[in-house]
Amino acid sequence: YIEMDGRFPAKGFKKNLTCTEATFMIEGEFTVTMGEKTVVIGPRDVLYMPLDTPYAIEGKGKALVFIEPRWDGKQNVDC
């Protein structure tokens, strides 16, 4: 579960080296940039983020994030 109001990461992009993520929006809106593609997700939307994909998220909202395998901060790197 995450609550966010702003941008992650603060500047640039991150990418996950060992896990994939699926985000289910509960409320609010996130603008997600993955590589060259930007999408806006809102309540009841699901977004799949593939392994090794540069991403940035901006907006205000609440979401459930499903991560496989278990998330480890060491595998989430700047890019």
What does this structure look like?
The chain has 79 residues and is mainly beta. The protein is 0% helix and 65% strand. The protein contains no helices and seven strands. Strands 1, 3, 4, 5 and 6 form a five-stranded antiparallel beta sheet that branches. Strand 3 and strand 4 (37-41) form a beta hairpin. It is globular. The N and C termini lie far apart (24 Å). 9% of the residues are buried. The mean pLDDT is 94.
Shape: globular
Structural class: mainly beta
Low-confidence stretches: none
Order of helices and strands: EEEEEEE
How far apart the termini lie comes to: 24 Å
| Portion in helices | under 10%
Number of strands: 7
Count of runs of 4 or more consecutive helical residues: 0
Largest sheet: 5 strands, antiparallel
Computed Rg: 12 Å
Q: How much is the average pLDDT?
A: 94
